[in-house]
Request: fold
Amino acid sequence: MAFLKLLFRNKLAAAGLIIMGLVVVLAVLTPWLPLLDPDVTATGDRFKPPFSAGHLLGTDHLGRDLLSRLMWGTRLSLMVGFAAALIAALLGSTVGIVAGYFGGRTDNIIMRAVDMLMAFPYILLALAIVAALGPGLVNALIAVAAVNIPFFARNIRGVTVSLARREFIDAAKLAGMGHLRIIVFELLPNVAPVIVIAMSTTVGWMILETAGLSFLGLGSQPPQADLGSMLGEARSALITSPHTSAVPGLMIFVIVMSINLLGDGVRDALDPRLRSGALTRPRAVTQIDRQQPAPEADGASLLALQDLSTEFRVAKRTYKAVRHVNLHVAPGECLGVIGESGSGKSVTALSIMGLVASPPGVITGGAGRFEGQDLIGASYETLRAMRGDKVAYIFQDPLSTLHPLYRVGDQLCEAIRSHHKVTAREARTRALELLAAVRIPNPESRIDNYPHEMSGGMRQRVSIAMALANDPEVIIADEPTTALDVTVQAQILSLLNDLRRERQLAIIFITHDFGVVAQLCDRVAVMYAGQIVEEGPSQAILDRPAHPYAKRLMACVPDLGQGRRELEAIPGLPPAVDRLPDGCAFAERCNKASQACRVGSIELVGTSDGRRAVRCLDPEESLS
Ligand code: ADP
Ligand code: MG
Reply:
């Protein structure tokens, strides 16, 4: 159902589906429709024009009723086209799955055979097959199916190869499943959408190919009508009686067009990446929908978020991922943003440079100022010039942020040259400096490595080098050490720490680890359900957390060398951000919550010097 809904959102695909549906229904009903016999000749009635009495579409060169021949011909062409597509998909996919799954020599032998088929122009190959088997519709069907097998085999093999090396297949093998069961129950469900997509985009093609063979007289044999043979027979009267060619020609056009529109729609609707969002391309900048004008600039911070709100609009639901967040950093300062997974840290960070995917992301209010200039609503060109140059990001997963097919040095050079006009040699020298700056041993040899030749820690250092490439003023690091082990984490933290002291870099460091905050951050903001619930100097918050959530978050962290201590997990789960409760979002899980905590909205209350603030009616520590 969801699939149909998505399909119908694409107007052209819906039109294709409706037209195709009509044609198919008519073709199925043809034997029961009150039509003249398609094969009865009446030489007296030759070449009657359309709309003549008794012949709605006129007659052909033998006086046969064109409407009747069109209906029967469409029926036959559709049947042959679909049958050929089914056969090609079945055989081709089987060949592709077997080759991709078993790999090695099996793969080699099968794929070379497929390559040989592919080496001939397909229509020549089809002609050769029909020539060998003799003309006839069934042989034409076999020929069309055969020439399309390589297409399916190649496509499906590619998908299978990447799936067959995945962990869930290994797990199935380790569980003792046989090859057949793995193929049928593990591989096939993953490959099936690709098969359907390949079919839906090739059926039209196959109908055309069958028509082509019939046109040449190699498919359906007289008097049997199919669309191709009708065209072929009408060829000699193309000038004198154009309607005899126009009728089957138009039908072929309608069928192929509607199938292709439908096929495109099916492909889009089945693609899992498109399923969650709308069927439109993501924009280059997050969509902005500010209800109120941007707040005035206050004070001179390097980067400041004022009252920033970002939500995701998916179908009828609105996920309020970030609500009225205020943050700021000064040069040389490190601000920590901490919170459970899903609390809105990444969305906050991405909103600054308009990097939240839209749709479904929308920034609904606030400002993000870099040196006073509001970035929310800035043009794509402005943002593009700043991304990576003034404000750089480091993401969590170093393997997925580096391109697997380029050498790390080339990727570094690309980062430099997209913002500065320098020669390739200068860029390379700079890349070497950067690699040395992030303490990669032997930068001269490492610069020509591919990402997979490096360890996780090294790759993350390359990402940091890339973020540093243009000497940015601010680095936003989104859990950059979560995927690394503790020794590498320590090295990377001290690296970032040195960099900010040497270069007066401002860092926004997103993490869920209080240990990291203690080591690196001057100030920290604690996020919960899209809001900041507490902020202040790291040491003060670590020593005396005021918000119950911050306090309990810290109680979850084990202390080394502190002997036995009971670790308290926080009971319950954070609220879903599309159904936020009234009042404090943490009230459900808080042992101090009272009735007053569950109404209205709870404000962030700061001390008079502005150093600390907490969003709680009954804080654990009094701040003043
Ligand atoms: P984290 O603090 O772990 O970085 P995120 O900022 O990634 O959390 O996510 C914040 C909230 O936004 C989460 O509740 C998440 O479910 C929601 N969210 C993120 N991306 C989308 C999306 N594309 N559609 C709907 N909700 C989303
Ligand atoms: Mg995140």
About this structure: The longest strand covers residues 317-329. The longest helix spans residues 66-102. Residues 74-270 form a domain with the MetI-like fold fold (CATH 1.10.3720.10).
